[in-house]
Amino acid sequence: MRSRAYERLVKKLTVEILWIYIAKVLMSSGPLRAYEVKKKIVERFNMKPQTMTTYTVIYRMVREGLLAPTNIGGDTVYTLTDKGKEEFTEAVKFLESVLEALKH
Q1: pLDDT, tens digit, for every residue of 71-96?
Q2: Domain 4-103 adopts which CATH fold?
Q3: I need a surface site. Which of 43, 74, 97, 100 has the fewest CB within 10 A?
Q4: pTM of the full predicted structure?
């Protein structure tokens, strides 16, 4: 059985930074509908965020200019913007620096 501290860490590094997983999925897959984004997160990261949480984060990312919605045949698909790619790259660099500091 995992400790509460470990469980909090997992939550902080998954659900609370869901945007980074959404960005990675869209970088790898190209434009997707919100439901498809959630499905890819489950498949790729073995993580099961709630549907409403995923949608809320996607909408927030649109407001922040990290994603661009496009209507294709009545469906809205989302694409990572250049700003979204930059933010993702900076976030990964930050996480790498944290891990490196923890290792030493």
Answers
A1: 999 999 999 999 999 999 999 999 99
A2: Arc Repressor Mutant, subunit A (1.10.10)
A3: 74
A4: 0.92
